[in-house]
Amino acid sequence: MSMTADVYDRRQDRRPWLKRLADASEPYLYSAPALILIIVVMLVPLVVGISYAFRDIQLLNPFSGGFIGLEHFETLSKDRAFYTALKNTLWWTGASVFLQFGFGLILALLLDKPFMGRGLVQALVFLPWAVPSFLAGLNWSWLFNPVIGPIPHWLFDLGLMSQPGNILSDPQYAMWGPIIANVWWGIPFFAITLLAALQSIPRDLYEAASIDGASWFQRFWSITLPFLAPTIAITVLLRTVWISNFADLIVVMTGGGPADRTQIVASYIFTQAFKALDFGYASAIALVLLVLLLAYSMLIILLRQTLLNKG
Amino acid sequence: MKTSLLPTIAHRLAILAYVIFALFPLYWLFKVSLTPNDLLYSEGVRMWPSRTTWEHYSFVLQHSAFPTFFKNSLIVSGSTAIIVTICASLSGYALSRFSFRFKYWIVGLMLLTQMFPLVMLVAPIFKILTPLGLTNSLTGLIVVYTAFNVPFATFLMQSFFDGIPKDLEEAAMIDGATKFTAFREIILPLTLPGIAATLGFVFTAAWSELLFALMLINGNNAATFPVGLLTFVSKFSVDFGQMMAAGVLALIPAALFFLLIQRYLVQGLTAGAVKG
Lengths: 311, 276
Fold this sequence. Notes:
Chain A is mainly α. Helix content of chain A is about 70%, strand content about 0%.
């Protein structure tokens, strides 16, 4: 609406002021319940949590609670477990996102082709997404358990293991357990979003390309990929942040062990708060994680701007 | 269109591989839950036990605390889903239909809540809820889950409202209806599928939540399913049959809701992608 129309409206506005007030506050009334909940349950604890990072808060110690400045951060800078967790977070996130995306893209391409029973297949392959994460974690830790699960025996039969053992207790390979569970659980997310993007590509483009004699790979490379690029970029980037914070599978499957080999920063925060009951230190680590994630998001926004300016 | 046989076979085989990979863990869960204890170790890797039994299910349902966990989870997830959907349809409507001064601040705030790691809030929320008597209580969990799910549900509902033409309510208002009457009588009935989808998404999310439930609840009385199952696992880690029977039971409501919302998955995940 243009400026003149606005002015005209206001001059013509003969509503009584009470009615005008009611109209103006209407959207706020609609959003009030949601806003109040978010502010009270998320924003206030966030601020409180940031303040904890500078205080000595231990649940079982009644004398704690004092302001200690940057002491937690000094401890943190010398905390070997934290650096291990940081390294593990990169490995966990990188491998999970890469594999989820790769297998998700292949699945989306397979499902994009019409065939008999596609609806049923789609429901079946997307089912892992609906499995609660704790159950997915338990389920996979049972599959890796030599007493009850088949995987160690298969690996043994293939000659990959000298005896059927549990990889979750093997310091060298333990991280693969949660990663595989995460891939199983996360493929549907990528497959669903990519399939939606695939189905929005106009079909005549492919037909024209086939008439011109383009091979499958040429069509994929010069039609499919460019169309998918924006969806790929946004889902991969957002998923990266989400997975780096996703501690459920690790808490359930390994609890960070053996010897912190699967501890990621998010599960380390949880362990400090839940097991050590050291809320101050947990909040300090959380603050560092928040800063790192913010830096990552800024990087993405900058990258996006440069790419947009180029295009 | 010529169809050659070889690529078709390769395509079907690849699809089959995905279906097997997706279903095998759930199949194994079900298989072990039906295996009698005396066969558990001797027939560990067989695809199907030589005898099956429902005794694990009857034990879990009659002699364990799982029915309580199940009931608690149902109360928490159900209430969360209903309250969130009410709040989110109101706020989603506001974002979809009004333009107002602080709109972008509100959207920004909601996006912000989706960006930071929720695990940050574990300690402060515990500290804040304790003096209020909201730890170890289902009410406390409902409040926390409701707030966590409102932003995403708001974006989801907004996307559903955006899909309804504005002319409909304008016509009703010309006929003398107030905006709220138009919302209630015309818009809400049209968004019923969207409301069902939101209910499903939030229910599943609350049903699966683990970390806050572990932190805020101790003791069996207020334990939700994840907490109960994990306590059970760490206490009786040899009763595999019973644990898996409980696991299968925990899967049922989630799978039901999945079937209900399956049609809306794409819309939900796109709104989810927007939220982060």
